[in-house]
Design brief:
The complex is a heterodimer.
Chain A lengths: L1 E3 L6 H4 L41 E4 L10 E2 L2 E2 H18 L3 E3 L18 H7 L3 E9 L5 E9 L4 E10 L4 H17 L8 E8 L6 E8 L6 E2 L7 E6 L5 E6 L6 E6 L4 E4 L7 E6 L5 E8 L2 E8 L6 E2 L7 E6 L5 E6 L6 E6 L6 E2 L6 E7 L6 E6 L4 E5 L7 E2 L5 E6 L5 E7 L7 E7 L5 E3 L5 E7 L5
Parallel strand pairs in A: 2-5, 2-6
Antiparallel strand pairs in A: 1-8, 3-4, 6-7, 7-8, 9-10, 9-32, 10-11, 12-13, 13-14, 14-15, 16-17, 17-18, 18-19, 20-21, 21-22, 22-23, 24-25, 25-26, 26-27, 28-29, 29-30, 30-31
Helix pairs in contact in A: 2-4
Chain B lengths: L47 E2 L2 E2 L4 H7 L4 E3 L9 H16 L4 E7 L6 H21 L7 E7 L10 H7 L1 E7 L1
Parallel strand pairs in B: 4-5
Antiparallel strand pairs in B: 1-2, 3-6, 4-6
Helix pairs in contact in B: 2-3
Classes of the chains: A mainly beta, B alpha+beta.
Chain lengths: 460, 174
């Protein structure tokens, strides 16, 4: 559980109970502290898609606690250190921030949280400063406050706070990092989200594959299936309460919906031949999928509750891999009807099918960004590489070197996760992320190998 | 929050034996045990009874026909002359045992994307099945399944391995 304290984090409301324990921190009205006369500081901001600007140095000292209390999540002073670490890792992983090493960060007292020592922080080279606190509420929950400051202008930029249950404590750090990232880049948040994927182990000819879910930073990892049947291509429902995926259970490769609450899978389409490549519609009402009958594969949609599938494509070629636009009005998919795999777009009812990839080469696994402005794909021919293009097919840009496949978008449409395979008899695969510049690439830590990652929505 | 599912690793490690399914330019070598399909019946049911091979079993099939496997070109699903000869041999055996059913598995090499390869494997399985049906085998005796690129028999990343993996395997159900 996580509950926002957006309004309540003003000094007078959030901290009165603590007045008994520590002097109330000095009031600091955000807009009152202007820069010294004669200086107009540039607004603090970071560009996501552009340029070659260096990452912004940012200071994220340990979050103090008004009282050290033991909680099911650990003791609050240890939590303060861990929260700062998670915030720093999220921001560093975006490629846009350089958190100062902890050796350069002095301890911040509770009273200082909303009255920062700007002169000190300016001397460290930090341009932005994140201060916060963590407090045990006495009812088992924790309160985490988070304040962002512009060091040169000596002003508070924004603040947020959350009440979290002990099991969800990491989410408060992700929400804080999201606040900082969104405020300084102007982009949407994405750190408080999860990835579902296929965990892999065993030899290349006989992989054991299990569905698994984890936070986007690799934490809170757990397996959802037991590896007895091959499982492939899991994707989140928009409400994050279930996962749709494909399984070879009972030697009948079919799509299933796995309910995250009950832990039970439900077969989606009855009495069908091979069904695969499932995806939810953005409103959660439909499941798009591919069905192979007598050697021909087409795209269908079916109500998420189950029922009679409605056929959307009819070409004798292989039509597969459908993905909805974020407004649900169109679908991007791949088809080899022209002789090789290419990317097509159609209306959600199957009408108006037209090819959009003309860049030379073959294209597969198209996925529409949640922002609607881009389509990510796997480009074939030699190595597999991840690329992006506009929904009309222009502006093609290749982001990785390969052997990469199966992109999936972050909730803010600015980062892509995919899997990378090694050549040869190991053929081991791992999960990676890359940003839209293609410059920031990193491997996601997983307990075993992994493939088919799908990035879930931002958690509310 | 969903509870943790118990992880029951079966540990059912069926040995994956690399099949010598290279394109034959001369008479093919004697059939080898091609257990490329993970979901073939368990070893206890290969048709060996006290060391003797049961007629009409998958083991009998594999030692009797030219090959249980036909190969395909890159991104192709057409049955070429070599494949026709192999499938003719399979059809003849199946006509001797009219009650036997079989699954035709379609497979791909790793140079395709995952979902497309599931579809391409299905195309290959059906191409082989349709040829057997054209040779007089009742279609109700044959099912198809696609493994895409999930179950390669050759593990390398070279032309030879890829060629061996682009295949349709006929597995007799005992």
């Amino acid at each position: 559980m996580i509950r926002s304290l957006l309004v309540a984090l003003s000094v007078t409301v959030a901290l009165p109970a603590l007045a008994q324990q520590a002097p109330a921190p000095a009031q600091s009205a955000p807009q009152d502290q202007a820069a010294p006369a004669g200086q107009t500081p540039a607004p603090l901001e970071v560009s996501v898609t552009g340029g070659v600007s260096a990452p912004m140095p940012i200071a994220i000292p340990v979050l103090p606690t008004p009282q050290v209390v033991d909680t099911p999540a650990g003791s609050t002073d240890v939590l303060g250190r861990q929260l700062a670490g998670i915030i720093a890792t999220d921001l560093r992983n975006s490629g846009l921030f350089t958190p100062l090493p902890s050796s350069q960060l002095r301890a911040v007292g509770f009273q200082e949280v909303n009255a920062p020592a700007f002169d000190y922080w300016g001397g460290t080279g930090a341009q932005a400063l994140v201060q916060g606190f963590v407090r045990a509420n006495g009812d088992g929950n924790l309160t985490v406050g988070c304040y962002l400051y512009d060091v040169f202008s000596k002003v508070e930029l924004t603040r947020t706070g959350f009440v979290v249950s002990p099991g969800d404590w990491r989410r408060a750090a992700h929400k804080c990092a999201d606040m900082v990232y969104a405020r300084l880049t102007g982009e949407g948040p994405y750190f408080d989200s999860r990835v579902v994927y296929v965990s892999e182990t065993g030899p290349k000819g006989k992989r054991i594959k299990r569905l698994a879910i984890m936070d986007q930073d690799g934490a809170n990892h757990r397996f959802l299936t037991n590896g007895q049947s091959i499982v492939l291509t899991p994707r989140f429902a928009p409400n994050q309460q279930s996962i749709v995926f494909m399984s070879y259970e009972n030697d009948k490769p079919s799509i299933y919906v796995y309910d995250l609450g009950s832990g039970r899978p439900r077969r989606v389409v009855q009495n069908a031949s091979l069904t695969f490549a499932p995806r939810f519609s953005p409103d959660g009402r439909w499941i798009l999928f591919s069905m192979a009958q007598n050697g021909n594969t087409d795209i269908y949609r079916v109500s998420a509750q189950g029922g009679t599938p409605q056929r959307l494509t009819t070409s004798p070629g292989i039509d597969t891999g459908g993905s909805y636009s974020p407004d649900g009005s169109r679908i991007v998919f791949e088809s080899d009807r022209s002789g090789g795999q290419q990317i097509y777009v159609m209306n959600a009812d199957g009408s108006g099918q037209q090819r959009i990839s003309f860049g030379g080469g073959r294209y597969a696994t198209p996925v529409w960004s949640p922002r609607g402005d881009l389509i990510a794909f796997t480009k074939l021919g030699g190595a597999f590489r991840i690329g992006i293009m506009s929904p009309s097919g222009g502006g093609e840009k290749i982001l990785t070197q390969g052997q990469d496949e199966g992109p999936s978008w972050s909730p803010n449409g600015r980062v892509i996760t995919f899997y990378r395979s090694s050549p040869g008899s190991s053929g081991k695969a791992d999960l990676w992320m890359v940003d839209l510049t293609g410059q920031v690439e990193r491997k996601i830590p997983t307990p075993l190998d992994g493939s088919d990652p799908a990035w879930g929505p931002l958690r509310p | 929050m969903a509870k943790l599912t118990n992880i029951l690793l079966t540990g059912a490690a069926l040995a994956s034996l690399a099949a010598c399914a290279s394109k034959p330019k001369q008479l093919p070598p004697p059939p080898v045990d091609n257990t490329a399909g993970l979901n073939t019946p368990p070893p206890a049911n290969t048709g060996n009874v006290d060391g003797a091979i049961v007629p009409g079993s998958d083991a009998d099939f594999r030692r009797s026909v030219t090959s249980n496997t036909v190969l395909f070109g890159l991104d192709q699903s057409d049955i070429d002359a070599d494949a026709r000869a192999i499938l003719d041999s399979q059809a003849a055996w199946m006509q001797r045992y009219p009650n036997v059913r079989a699954t035709v598995e379609g497979h791909c090499d790793e140079r395709g994307t995952r979902e497309y390869n599931l579809a391409l494997g299905d195309r290959r399985a059906n191409a082989a099945k349709n040829y057997l049906v054209a040779k007089g085998i009742d279609p109700s005796r044959l099912t198809t399944i696609s493994y895409g690129k999930e179950r390669p028999v050759a593990l390398g990343s070279d032309e030879s391995a890829w060629a061996q993996n682009r295949r349709a395997v006929t597995v007799v159900l005992n």
